[in-house]
Amino acid sequence: MHDYQMENQGNVALPRLNEPAPDFKAKTTHGSKRLADYRGRWLILFSHPADFTPVCTTEFMAFARAWPEFQDRNCDLLGLSIDSTFSHLAWARNIEEKFGVEIPFPIIDDLSMNVAQAYGMIMPGASDTSTVRATFLIDPEGVLRAMVYYPMSNGRNVAEFLRLLDAMQTSDAHNVATPEGWQRGEKVIVPPPATVEAANARMDEGYECTDWYFCKKSLPEAALPKS
Predict the structure, then answer these.
(1) What is each CA distance from 180 to 80, 160, 187, 223, in whole angstroms?
(2) From first to last of its 227 residues, what are the pLDDT tens digits of the chain?
(3) Which of 139, 215, 227, 147 is nearest to 184 (CA)?
């Protein structure tokens, strides 16, 4: 198991961004899985409150339809709820039978709640046993890079996770930041200068600058993450 630090919010322990994601070994609908199995690839680990619930069904179908796009971005998906493998299998079969959508990724059986508790997926006031709609983006080195929480009553936007994955991969590859709502092909933000000398030189470096601290540039199409 990795050593990692967690902050307490009430009775909930949350892992920290930019530190190793909590390690796990768990039964899934695709056999035993552990965090180390995803080394070298991005991983989106996401929890849902319960099998055979309508909002979760829409989310799983959306993740399943986007599965090829995540795979093209070197990213795997891994679902979780505090239900048994048998419940997961029955639900996945039901989704395929009733909605015509096959679930291609594993779903963790977390009856012990070990993974849910390590990742802070159970929130006080939401439910004592149901996981909230938590989503964790873990990079190929096993580092937790993003966490997004939704209330139990409202479904996630799967397209946003594709967009965020594109943005993080672009930032990692080119040492840039991305503005609000950034989409593939749009200009990126050049990190602001950190010295007086660099600030004085910034306006003459060929970037599209509004001021010395706010400059953008375009990336060649070949430099963008694969889609």
Answers:
(1) 30, 12, 11, 20
(2) 443 333 444 455 689 999 999 999 999 999 999 999 999 999 999 999 899 999 999 999 999 999 999 999 999 999 998 899 999 999 999 999 999 999 999 999 999 889 999 998 887 654 555 778 899 999 999 999 999 999 888 999 999 999 999 999 999 999 999 999 999 999 999 999 999 999 999 989 999 999 999 999 999 875 555 65
(3) 227
The CATH number of 6-156 is 3.40.30.10
CB contact burial 141-176 (16+ within 10 A = b; e otherwise) = ebebbbbbbbebeebbebeebbbbbbbbbbbeeeeb
Outline which parts of the chain fall under CATH 3.30.1020.10.
175-223
Q: 175-223, what's its fold?
A: Antioxidant, Horf6; Chain A, domain 2 (3.30.1020)
98's enclosing H/E stretch is: helix 85-99
In the residue annotation, 56 being an active-site residue is answered as yes
- Identify the active-site residue in 56, 75, 209, 215: 56
